[in-house]
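Complex record, four chains
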Amino acid sequence: MNFQLNEQKEELQKRLSRFEKQCREKGLRVTRQRREIFCTVAQSSEHPSAEKVFQAVRQKMPNVSLDTVYRTLSSLEEMDLLMRVGLSSKARFDGDLRPHCHFVCTRCGEVYDIFPQAGEPPFSLPYGAAEKGEVKQINLQLRGICKKCCSR
Amino acid sequence: MNFQLNEQKEELQKRLSRFEKQCREKGLRVTRQRREIFCTVAQSSEHPSAEKVFQAVRQKMPNVSLDTVYRTLSSLEEMDLLMRVGLSSKARFDGDLRPHCHFVCTRCGEVYDIFPQAGEPPFSLPYGAAEKGEVKQINLQLRGICKKCCSR
DNA sequence: TTTTTTGCAAATACTTTGCATAACG
DNA sequence: CGTTATGCAAAGTATTTGCAAAAAA
């Protein structure tokens, strides 16, 4: 198990290097806050909210502020170093319950439908789903930059 | 095309009946506001926000209030008559970028990971995805009631 | 008529922004 | 040293709640 811990540490190191490399490429400075926030999310398996990340980081850096956490989470998302579960700020609703996918643009927030085409294999529940609870909706979400935003 | 319009109307009628039936089953009253809000979302294909629904409904019912819209959208979700794109209120973050699914409990808001098991077919992009934009993340989202909430 | 729902107003989250100071490269 | 990032405070959105009056069953 000590072995496993070492593996985890190595893995984290690798991700930290990637983080630092991408920061430099983007012209962003590698600050203590960014590193700490990145590590916190990278090591957590509980899909923390901004507030939770803030509380965790504050253990090591009592002076960190919540708005720095928000700012950093957004830039980490933009660098594809973490992903946001669900949407950003406001909720949106869909009355069409037929199985289909959503392409969510992480830049403008627009949501596009993708309906299955003829001959396409149907959705299927992943093996481990049933043991988590009672599934009522399946929704494949693709996140990226939409055509409109790409051409700007 | 008149024919198609008739089909659409019939479809909406069917969904309205289902809506009314489920309201009665849940002991909820079928009010003008609920019916109007349901129809608005059911007929829209733009994944409207609460604010957008509010504006649309206000065309027909100038006195409707935004908080009624919020309340109604939540009860419609609970009745599985519409779905929420993404999560409810607050954003949550995931540092694990390996392909995996999320089981989202619509009652308590908890997010559970489901990792693919050995022998399970891998994720694949749906056919129409590429034409929407540049996909950076794929995330299969299952929505339902988790075990913990079921046993309460 | 009884109970639920609505609209209003106000409160409560959650997230973002402007600006002077601190920290990185 | 020049420039970017941080912390603070305050503002801006999004969503929720308590309560008296209105509407459904």
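Note: The mean pLDDT of chain A is 89.
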